[in-house]
Amino acid sequence: FSRRFTKTRLWDICIAHGCTTWSNLGGIASAIYGEPPSAKDRMHKVRVVVSAGMPRELWTPFEERFGVRILEWYGTMEGSAFAFKPPGVGPVGSFGKAPDILEMTILDEDDQPVPAGTIGELVGRPAGGSARLEYFKNTAASDRKTRGGWMHTGDMCWRDADGWYFFAHRKEEGGIRRMGEFIPEGFVRRVVLDHPDVVDVHVYGVPSRTGAPGESDLVVAVVVGRPEAFDARSLFERCGRLLERSHVPDYIQVVDELPKTASEKVQTRFLAAALDTSAPGVYVRPSAAV
């Protein structure tokens, strides 16, 4: 047993205790998938992984490798916004639909509904009612959070024509835009994770060196098995072969471990603060990889 998440012992613990399910949060799935294949991948009794944040590009490979099904869900601490997608139902990558007791929709910057396929802020409320929230001694913040009767989640999402919801990025993070298009970091993560030296990865953006407003340079922070033998050029070349030009990382940042919260969410701000192109372990993309 471990009081903290341990990617190297997760399957050992599941096997020892006969676990039939475990919960995925934040970067747990990427870390587990990044471990070398082992006979233990299928020796467990786990049937369902209850997940909040399974990367779309990792979803099917994860199920196939470990012999599990993914039950994806979404929820907020404040309530009024909740959705779930049972295993085998709906499109891969979606976090589901709201139950009948709740209503959810997507709004633009003017709090107007957007059409299917358009990214906007996810909002929710009780069916037929209004969202309620009271911050301690902060009426203004409470009113902003529940304006129009909706609970504003701060999560930028979109839904398809059949009403299935998908996560894009947090509102304050703005997404990763490069060469005029938003980068779905899951594609980059999958390609990097499949490199034999990489055991964990986080993809994030920093302000572009060109100074173009809203544009980002792309960084992949990686934990590698043997830092002294890591060949950054081989990873750049792999990305150049398998990714579109706009998706090839500008920087590879080798770290001992990814800084994470107690719920396994990667703390991007610490990685960005430590990014120094003159420091050991930080590699700049060669022009040949573009």
What are its keywords?
290 residues; alpha+beta; Rossmann fold; Luciferase, domain 3; GMP Synthetase, Chain A, domain 3; 3 domains; four-stranded mixed β-sheet; four-stranded antiparallel β-sheet; 20% helix; 27% strand; globular
Structural commentary:
The chain is α+β, with helices and mostly antiparallel strands and 290 residues long. The chain folds into three domains: 1-73, Rossmann fold (3-Layer(aba) Sandwich), CATH 3.40.50.980; 76-174, Roll (Luciferase, domain 3); 177-289, GMP Synthetase, Chain A, domain 3, CATH 3.30.300.30. It contains seven helices and 14 strands. It has helices spanning 10-17, 28-33, 56-66, 139-145, 185-193, 232-242, 268-274; strands at residues 21-25, 48-52, 69-75, 82-85, 102-107, 120-126, 151-159, 165-170, 177-178, 181-182, 198-207, 216-224, 251-254, 282-284. Strands 1-2-3-4 form a four-stranded mixed β-sheet, with no helix packed on it. β2, α3 and β3 form a beta-alpha-beta unit. The radius of gyration is 20 Å and the shape is globular. The termini are far apart.
Number of H/I helices: 7
CATH fold name of the largest domain, please? GMP Synthetase, Chain A, domain 3
Which CATH-level-2 architecture of the largest domain? 2-Layer Sandwich
Unreliable parts? none
- The CATH homologous superfamily name of the largest domain equals ANL, C-terminal domain
Shape: globular
What is the element layout, followed by pairings?
Blueprint lengths: L9 H8 L3 E5 L2 H6 L14 E5 L3 H11 L2 E7 L6 E4 L16 E6 L12 E7 L12 H7 L5 E9 L5 E6 L6 E2 L2 E2 L2 H9 L4 E10 L8 E9 L7 H11 L8 E4 L13 H7 L7 E3 L6
Parallel strand pairs: 1-2, 2-3, 12-13
Antiparallel strand pairs: 3-4, 5-6, 6-7, 7-8, 9-10, 11-12, 13-14
